[in-house]
Amino acid sequence: MTDGVDNNKRRFLTIAATTAVASVGAVGAAVPFIASWNPSARAKAAGAPVEADFSKLQPGQMMRVEWRGKPVWIVRRTEQNLKDLASLTDSLRDPESTLHTKGQPSYAANETRAIKAEYAILVGICTHLGCSPTYRPELAPADLGEKWRGGFFCPCHGSRFDLAGRVYKNVPAPTNLEVPKHMYLSETRVMIGVDEGAA
How many CB atoms neighbour CB 124 within 10 A? Predict the structure, then answer.
């Protein structure tokens, strides 16, 4: 009855089918296991680092990321924005970020307050009473005056910050916006919450 049956071929097909089913099963088991390595929402809220991809961010645009339950802004500054930062020094309370450095990374103590001048990475919470300022990139709007060169305006009590998060003089906010620790993983990806000496 087994005339014409190729047992070697049958064995090969049985092994191939078994291997394919086992492989699918292994992948099915591995995906949730590997996914479990990612920090939970609770861990992220407690301070686990957060990765952000800003590859679609155009000059002049801002994106928001959540880290430790706080909004973090990533702003891609234009060349004009960078030129304007130098012109604002006399209007700012702490232009070089040297007055309140506790908890701030070393790369926050300069004119751009950044590792890469093109990108500002700031915690989006006003240092006065914790409101979230609005992003106002336009130049000289009627409500902010002709000297406004873009930045952040807090609608709660009128505090103003430039596009490096530096606070203006004569506003309620006492200090510059916080720069979180961060490090670039590539040209378009950043890890917020750790820097491992990446300055």
Answer: 21
